Amino acid sequence: MDDHQQRVHSRVLILTIGTRGDVQPFVTLAHMLQRTGVAPLLVTLPHYLDLCSEAGVPCASLLGDDESWPETSSLGDGVEDQAEFEEKMIIEPYMQHMPTMLMRLEQLAGEFSPDMVVVGMLVWFVEWLRETLRVPLVHAYLQPLRWLGTRDPSRRAERQRQRFAVRLQKSAPLIDTDFVRVRIAEPSELQLLAFPAGLGVSHLPGLGGVPTGFWCLPHTADERLPKKETDLLAAFLDAGPPPLCLNFGSMPVYSRAEWSGALLTALEQHCHAGGRLLAIGALVPPRLQQWPHTLVLRSAPHALVLPRCACVVHHGGAGTCAATVRARVPSLVVPHLTWIDQLRWATWLVQHGAGMVMPEESRRVEDFAAKLREVQHSPWLRRGVGALADQLEADGGVALAVRLIGDRLVGGAAAAAGGAASEGG
User: Fold this and answer.
1) Which residues on neighbouring strands pair with residue 313, listed in sequence order?
2) Of 210, 295, 411, 423, which has the fewest CB atoms closer than 10 Å, so is most exposed?
3) pLDDT of 1-28, one tens digit each?
């Protein structure tokens, strides 16, 4: 059997937990693996199964039929730091669902018989996966782990997992208590850094990896809108100059952020003065539909929309930052959860001259209005984002990740065949 045939006959289980931003890149990875003949199965949280299905990616829920994991948009008021966010979004759900997750994974793996498992960075039972499934693992990181917020992130990660393990002692005895040690326990395992190469420096002490660049779908493979919305969008984009794009994704900024009122007032003034606005997201306030020169959509494919926009106002999530650069459109970043990675990504854009960020102390109506004018009409930001896009195109992206995984699949099959031959001899 040649290398291509080995890939075609391979099965890869992809496991990820977290927000939509933690899941979308793995949907892209699964979609592109399918194109090479590999059979993927993406196992994730139940509220992302539609996202997988819409991309044509085989998927399965990590939880039982009557179980759920909190979404970012459902967080209650008062979540103001990383510790509380992790408590509500990660620790409490892990405590509640760990037994079900392990049981489901064992069942799915038995039915699917994977040749490899790709694990996201919020999967904290890697040792259990090694011992139970006994197939090669690939670790994928969507941001540098040195961004976790302390001078020594490896010690922080270890302390956090140890506290986590104590709390989960009864329900999850196999939780990873030392994140770094677990991830480097098998040096032969592939570590993929799904972000630009320059950010991979000092990813985490002792933990290396191969920078691939962002995992984005090729423009020809991006998602499609229903025909009615496609027609509305096309008519709007063709009706005038490039609009300003408002896109906070699943971030509940309109109901939770104190500065959202000032931003919306500045945007309303922009529209009443003849400016155009494309507002994307299920959480966009309905009243924006009454504004002049405005189109509101629950969702829209980045590759189709962003290149037609003058600039994008967003929260600074990794996926949105990647999409704006890929579209060569400047950003105005207004970080919402400043204690996770959003401010880091905003800083990255600013350093490359690809966007601007709204400081927390300057978020009045007049501040937003001035920044919006500057970002929309700045030629130097256009040049900066174009230069950064050129750099990212050279990274390889998801195509490089797929090639590296394919090489491992072929190598693993060859090793297995050699071992079987030795035992038979």
Assistant:
1) 246, 332
2) 423
3) 455 555 567 999 999 998 888 899 999 9
Q: For the packed helices 379-393 and 318-326, what is the interaxial angle rounded to 10 degrees?
A: 100
Region of poorest pLDDT, from 46-55, 191-200, 213-222, 284-293: 213-222
Q: Within a 10 A sphere around the Cβ of 33, how many other Cβ atoms?
A: 26
Is the CB of residue 14 less than 8 Å from the CB of residue 116? no
Which tokens in the block code for residue 263?
């931003």
Give the CA radius of gyration of the chain: 22
At position 337, the amino acid (one-letter code) is L
Q: Which amino acid is residue 38, in one-letter code?
A: V
CA distances to 113, 115, 136, 185, 422 from 416, rounded to whole Å, are 15, 11, 11, 21, 10
DSSP letter, residue 153: H
CB 118 within 8 A of CB 126: no
Residue partners of 28: CB distance under 8 A and separation at least 6: 55, 215, 216, 217, 398
Give the full edge-to-edge strand order of the sheet including 277-280.
294-297, 277-280, 244-247, 311-314, 331-333, 355-357
**pLDDT tens-digit readout, 212-222:** 999 987 765 44
The whole-angstrom separation of Cα 131 and Cα 322 is 36
Q: Whole-angstrom Cα distance, residue 305 to residue 224?
A: 11
Angle between helices 397-424 and 20-35 (to 10 degrees): 60
Handedness of CA 29, 34, 40, 46 (dihedral sign): positive
What is the rounded distance in angstroms from the CA atom of residue 409 to the CA atom of residue 114? 11
Confirm if 258 and 267 have CB atoms less than 8 A apart. Answer: no
Q: Find out whether 72 and 256 touch, Cβ atoms under 8 Å.
A: no
Tokens 């494919």 locate to: 301
Q: Which one, of 305, 316, 239, lies nearest residue 278 by Cα?
A: 305
The helix/strand/coil state of 410 is: helix
Residue 16 has which token pair? 């990820």
What whole-number distance in Å separates Cα of residue 365 and Cα of residue 362? 9
Enter the pTM of the model: 0.86
CA atoms of 344 and 318, how far apart (whole Å): 9
Place of tokens 């690809």: 354
- Number of neighbours of residue 103 by Cβ within 10 angstroms: 11
Note the helical H segments in 239-378: 253-256, 260-272, 302-305, 318-326, 342-351, 365-377
